[in-house]
């Protein structure tokens, strides 16, 4: 392989900021709504379209895009551009979104990773490690209630995943996965062993107010929150709202309401965990003059301390059982996804901070209250995360935004950090 220009330190390399911003705009049209929100739930048609769109951009750039059995999209440079045979550096995030979410959550990290790879490729740069870009499948779990699906497969946590996952309406993941090029029977082939990566780097919007308030351009993430997601099914007995006596009703919605109150109180009054939320509920038959027979709801608990998180989970389980007895309904926790809190790698944090400084950007070290694929990949490799400011600190809503300048700065810091590791 002939390398025309060998910018081994990479100091001369700059990403194409205009191309990055244009790609983000175009991606936001896929699943885009009139209010500026984006709905690209994992394994939906829009998600599939976005994946194909990004794979096409990679191919047009002369890169190679493949899909592993878990549905993760991997982008690589053809040929061997490594100066050594140390394990690869993985860079990425996710393309799927929550229902009516923002245009940057996840998408930014994937498009920036593509830009990093394309920049290296166009410069013919030789790097110490192979650099691989990745979009992890179904990070949010908006349609299939297995958040971090792709990174859990990647990290080999197959035991923690249901064997035949279904979406909220009972459609099998097996089919949805096959449609994007994955294979539920071959998940093992998509797993990476501990030590097989030098590092995983994820660039993301902060989704909170810290960087904006402090007036910093770059966030060096020091830790990622722990999280427990529980999908709860409560079954009672439907009946006529006007004729069924109050005595003896088996109303699952009343039990759900009490449970929601308990969940909020866990964090707000009892301070058992940092935050606790019920963000999704489905009521059947959802009719104004019928007592419901079925409620499905999702509990999201977060804390940086695994012991507190475990205690909060036990409290929810206990409360659900007690409330179900009281309300004479059946309640089951259909699935629980636990993601442990993690610390990012100190060497990577230092590399991010040095990169930001060298490029002349202000920075702040901060924790992440949102979950990220990085905390799953941390099982097998040192991980690092770079944040850029979120305007008004909001995310998972259509108004999620970051200034174009900060978006470009983040990608440049990402590139420099990759070259430094
Ligand atoms: O829910 C989260 O923290 C993330 O956006 N997946
Ligand atoms: Mn998100
Ligand atoms: Mn995200
Ligand atoms: Mn009637």
UniProtKB/TrEMBL annotation:
Q: Pfam families given for it? A: M20_dimer (PF07687), Peptidase_M20 (PF01546)
Q: Which UniProt keywords apply?
A: Hydrolase
Protein biosynthesis keyword on record: no
What superkingdom does the record give? Bacteria
Alphabetized InterPro entries for the sequence: Amidase_Cbmase, Bact_exopeptidase_dim_dom, Peptidase_M20, Peptidase_M20_dimer
Specify the Peptidase M20 dimerisation domain's residue ranges.
226-324
**Could you say which protein family the record assigns here?**
Belongs to the peptidase M20 family.
Q: What is this protein called?
A: M20 family metallo-hydrolase
Q: What is the native source organism of this protein?
A: Streptosporangium vulgare
Taxonomically, what lineage is the organism? Bacteria, Bacillati, Actinomycetota, Actinomycetes, Streptosporangiales
């Amino acid at each position: 392989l002939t390398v025309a220009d060998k910018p081994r330190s990479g100091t001369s390399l700059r990403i194409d900021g205009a191309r990055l911003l244009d790609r983000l705009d175009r991606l936001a049209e896929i699943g885009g709504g009139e209010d500026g929100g984006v709905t690209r739930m994992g394994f939906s048609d829009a998600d599939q379209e976005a994946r194909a769109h990004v794979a096409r951009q990679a191919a047009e750039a002369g890169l190679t895009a493949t899909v592993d059995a878990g549905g993760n999209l991997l982008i690589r440079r053809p040929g061997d551009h490594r100066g050594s045979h140390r394990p690869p550096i993985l860079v990425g995030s996710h393309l799927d979104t929550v229902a009516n979410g923002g245009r940057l959550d996840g998408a930014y990290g994937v498009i920036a990773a593509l830009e990093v790879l394309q920049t290296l490729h166009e410069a013919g740069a030789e790097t110490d490690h192979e650099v691989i870009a990745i979009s992890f499948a179904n990070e949010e779990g908006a349609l299939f209630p297995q958040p971090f699906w792709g990174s859990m497969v990647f990290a080999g946590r197959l035991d923690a995943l249901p064997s035949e996952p279904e979406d909220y309406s009972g459609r099998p993941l097996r089919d949805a996965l096959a449609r994007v090029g994955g294979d539920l029977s071959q998940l093992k082939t998509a797993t990476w062993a501990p030590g097989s990566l030098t590092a995983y780097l994820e660039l993301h919007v902060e989704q909170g107010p810290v960087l904006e308030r402090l007036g910093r351009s770059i966030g060096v993430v020091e830790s990622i929150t722990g999280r427990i997601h529980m999908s709860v099914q409560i079954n009672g007995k439907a009946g006529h709202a006007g004729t069924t006596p109050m005595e003896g009703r088996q109303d699952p919605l009343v039990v759900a309401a009490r449970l929601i109150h308990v969940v909020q109180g866990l964090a707000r009054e009892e301070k058992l965990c940092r935050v606790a939320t019920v963000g999704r509920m489905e009521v059947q038959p959802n009719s104004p003059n019928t007592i419901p027979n079925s409620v499905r709801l999702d509990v999201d608990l977060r804390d940086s301390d695994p012991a507190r998180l475990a205690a909060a989970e036990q409290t929810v389980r206990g409360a659900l059982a007690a409330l179900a007895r009281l309300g004479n309904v059946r309640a089951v926790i259909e699935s629980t996804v636990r993601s442990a809190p993690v610390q990012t790698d100190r060497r990577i944090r230092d590399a991010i901070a040095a990169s930001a400084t060298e490029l002349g950007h202000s920075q702040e070290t901060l924790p992440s209250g949102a979950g990220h694929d990085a905390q799953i990949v941390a099982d097998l490799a040192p991980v690092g995360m770079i944040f850029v400011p979120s305007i008004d600190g909001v995310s998972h809503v259509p108004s999620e935004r970051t200034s174009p300048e900060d978006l470009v700065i983040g990608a440049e810091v990402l590139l420099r950090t990759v070259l430094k590791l």
